């Protein structure tokens, strides 16, 4: 089965696509021996005017139901075009799994109460003719989970192949939010650590420090100095002390959050120093958690993996940990989450739960998502009891 995974993360910069051909190479007691061949990956930036509308509608800004409806359609159409291009590149796909674009993740008293992703899947089904799995987070929340991080499903399967003898390994994704999966001798643990690029990008975009909207190659951070007083205040956020599993998003870590902290300081901070301090916030919070989990291997993916200030900071703070790119596990670092959603699509269509309760806090594993039929009658394959192992190539 060829499944196309589509996603746009908390950086809101565009659509990642990955076509994966899955083959069942055997059946064991715990499930299928699965091999996935990554046939195609692509990144499609949002049109500038669409991205501007999306960012303007995000919390803490006010918006309208009319704007949400229009964004649901426009982003769905953008996803549909990206899907059609990816499907054409490989001569067609059997199914699509679309995460869509998160616009709100409702956390109350440390518990997820709801989540909203826009990007209407009917546009994708109409454009490609393939069935579409979508709305994949809410079932986990309904089962008592955080709805995130779902990537622990893929991380667990990949890290098993690289697990140090008697030790633990971790997979870190540095998108807008930093999330981690830790695999060891016990149950899998996964959660959102805190901001990765969210606060850095918000400041750069607000102050026009780089037309690309992010700190390319860590250039701005490298020119600044850490403001220790501001950093101490940022590190005092109660979120970091919450027990895992936990999740967060730009509903909490956004531009106004930085502005409030700056106002509390009562003094000016140079642009480069502010970016450097926010970058150090990511390094300190991630390194603290990885060290506490006792991981001997850390595989990093996401946009933050391209920031040398972040990566050098992590290696310096985690001297006893081998820090590598997620590519070392077989998943291209820039496409890992799109590959994840291809895997979730395969799982849903084969009746396989894609929730790891230790990662999300759900009461039990659950099959995720809803299915929009394609141009043909919907025919599901024979169910599989689970996935015993996964090899990516």
Order of helices and strands: EEEHHEEHEHHEEEHHHHHEHEHHEE
CATH class of the largest domain: Alpha Beta
Largest sheet features: 8 strands, mixed
| Beta-strand proportion | 25-35%
**What's the CATH topology name of the largest domain?**
Nucleotidyltransferase, domain 5
The CATH architecture category of the largest domain equals 2-Layer Sandwich
Give the total of beta strands.
13
State the separation between the terminal residues, measured CA to CA.
15 Å
Number of helices: 13
Number of domains: 2
Broad structural category: alpha/beta
The CATH homologous superfamily of the largest domain: ATPase, nucleotide binding domain
Mean pLDDT: 95
Shape, principal axes of CA atoms: globular
Radius of gyration over alpha carbons?
20 Å
The helical percent reads 25-40%
Low-confidence stretches: none
GO molecular function: ATP binding; kinase activity; phosphotransferase activity, alcohol group as acceptor
Keywords: ATP-binding, Carbohydrate metabolism, Kinase, Nucleotide-binding, Transferase
EC number: 2.7.1.170
Organism: Microbacterium azadirachtae
Describe the structure.
The chain has 393 residues and is of the alpha/beta class. It folds into two domains: 2-148 and 334-392, 2-Layer Sandwich (Nucleotidyltransferase, domain 5); 152-329, ATPase, nucleotide binding domain (Nucleotidyltransferase, domain 5, 2-Layer Sandwich). It has 13 helices and 13 strands. It has helices at residues 48-57, 65-89, 121-128, 138-142, 152-160, 198-207, 219-222, 228-235, 255-265, 271-293, 308-317, 336-349, 357-360, and strands at residues 2-8, 14-28, 31-45, 95-108, 111-118, 132-134, 168-174, 177-183, 189-195, 295-301, 322-325, 370-372, 387-392. Strands 1, 2, 3, 4, 5, 6, 12 and 13 form an eight-stranded mixed beta sheet that branches. A five-stranded mixed beta sheet has the order 9-8-7-10-11, with helices on both faces. Helix 6 (198-207) runs antiparallel to helix 10 (271-293). It starts with a strand and ends with a strand. The mean pLDDT is 95.
